[in-house]
Amino acid sequence: MKKIALAAMILGMAGVLGACSMDGDGAAKTTGGTTVAQGTSQEEKGQKEKAGEGEEQTDTSGAGKSIAGIVFQEDQFFKLMSAGYEAAAKDLGYEIQLSNVTNDQMKETELVNTYTAQGVAGIAISPLSATISPEALKVSSDKGVKICVANTAMDSYPFSIAAYTSDNYAFCKQTGEIAVDFIKEKYGDEKIELGILQFKTQIPETSAERVNGFLAALDEGGVNYEIVSNQDAWLQDTAIAKAGDMLAANPDIDIMFAANDGGTIGAVMAVENAGQAGKTYVFGTDASEQIVDLLKADNDILQAVTGQDPFQIGYKTVETLVQSIEGKDVADQGKTVIVEGIPLRRGDTKQLDDFMSDLKSKM
């Protein structure tokens, strides 16, 4: 009987060890996992581990089916990207831990390191910096964690499976082309004063691409303009203050261009607060429920935006990440894939309503 008990104990130990093995990429596969978006409790995890001891394990939980999704800002764009991450993970049977680093580079690095140490199979991420973010992600990749980046190109992330993003220059040029028609109709060949809100101290490359795309459309359209103020403000409250100061110093600004969601909303509110409705018009970037409301508002301030499709960007990033984790062929391997922008303009009620219906279905 002692021999039988000893054999049973050895088999039980083998089962425990078998629940934490290394896959071909060196990523730990554990049945325990870590805290996940679905809210699996520590008690439930313990029960799963206990039930699995001594049994042959299938890859239905733990690191083999656990991934992480990271964004860097609290706004509608990144909420939709996170929703895309989560929807893809759910459709593909994966648990996903979602995090927002709130523009904190150190927090991003710490999270990447933590997820790597926990043994997640992969990380989907919209990285904060093209110069700093690659360092921690490369270390994670070298340790066998699959990486797929969003909202950026492959250039700084050669270890990423693929990259899904918008063409920042092209979609802001679309907004600029709408602005050209508006300016020509309203001002003719008159020289206009232009104010700009961007985010060059946050992500200089992306900010420059967006502003340059908008200005290229004005140049190609033969618009006569002077940039009288060019400020940094990408969060709504900051943008209200900066745009307000801009208008106080330059009350004759005809057109304001904002390079992101927060800047766009802040610019519109600043124009209204300053009593400049009907004098200063805003063209912006990104699309959300609030921005659609502003395009429909009677104050006639916001004229057009080109929205990105962050949900689709997030969904495709996780979908490709999982394909790579599971060893499947990845059609987009090594590519930067452009997800087309969505131009929205004042007066096109059907388009705005259709966009909102689609947006609400994803939230």
From TrEMBL:
GO terms for molecular function: carbohydrate binding. Residues 28-65 are annotated as: Disordered. Its main location: other. Residues 42-53 have a biased composition (Basic and acidic residues). It comes from the Bacteria. InterPro entries: Bact_Solute-Bind_Prot2, Peripla_BP_I, SBP_2_dom. It is found in: Cell envelope. Residues 28-40 have a biased composition (Low complexity). The keyword Transferase does not apply. GO terms for cellular component: outer membrane-bounded periplasmic space. Pfam families: Peripla_BP_4 (PF13407). Keywords: Signal. Residues 73-328 form the Periplasmic binding protein domain. Residues 1-19 form the signal peptide. Belongs to the bacterial solute-binding protein 2 family. PANTHER family: ABC TRANSPORTER PERIPLASMIC-BINDING PROTEIN YPHF, D-XYLOSE-BINDING PERIPLASMIC PROTEIN. This is Periplasmic binding protein domain-containing protein. It comes from Enterocloster bolteae 90B8.
